[in-house]
Amino acid sequence: MSFLNSALSITGLRKFATVATLAVSTLLMPMHTANAAQRAPYVVGNDRGGYLHDRLIELGNLQRNGTRVQIRGRVCYSTCTMYIGLSGTCVDPNTTFGFHGPSKSGRRLDPQQFDYFSKVMADYYPAPLKEWFMRKGRHQISGVYKMKGTELIKMGVQSCA
Fold first, then answer.
1. Where are the domains of the chain?
2. What pLDDT is recorded for position 43?
3. Which of 8, 32, 48, 118 is the most buried (most CB within 10 A)?
4. What is d(CA 27, CA 45) in angstroms, rounded to the nearest whole number?
5. Contact 53/142 with Cβ under 8 angstroms?
């Protein structure tokens, strides 16, 4: 009889543990989702760009972590503009964005590399901006084409205002 009672109590404990685990998991799931949604955004100040390789790594990390980006600086040039392609990114209407094509320290790339890296960059832009960049923006090698945040907002980029 004691063996039967022990078996019943162990079975009961296992059921209780399973139910308790499910209950705790169910309660914690919304908290995890809320924490991700409440995570502080990554705010981009004045950013004049940088190396494409380094920016791609940074963008990948932000994307994997689901980090929202706010571009709020006075300027966002070159590879900084690629933040626009991350989900949930917003731009300040007053920020000046500067676009140019890929180069190697300001020197033109061979046509095949130029096309490849232009497409890598353009894939981080919404469709209207991507089309403009591939048609016109990428051909600027020295200096930048300047565009205000208000123009990007008209192209479908979310406003931070």
1. 1-38, 42-159
2. 94
3. 118
4. 37
5. no
Q: Is 80 exposed, middle or buried (0-12, 13-18, 19+ CB in 10 A)?
A: buried
Phi, psi (degrees; rounded to nearest 5) at 75: -135, 150
Answer yes or no: pTM beyond 0.85.
Answer: no
Average pLDDT for 118-138: 94
Joined together, the tokens standing for residue 99 give: 């676009």
- As a whole number of angstroms, the distance between CA 62 and CA 44 comes to 12
CA angle, 153 as apex, 147 and 158 as ends, to 5°? 130
Find the helix or strand (DSSP H, E) in which 77 lies: strand 75-77
Per the structure block, which two tokens stand in for 97? 């964005």
**Quick one: DSSP state of residue 66?**
T
Q: What is the CATH number of domain 42-159?
A: 3.90.226.10
Nearest CA to 70 among 131, 62, 51, 48? 62
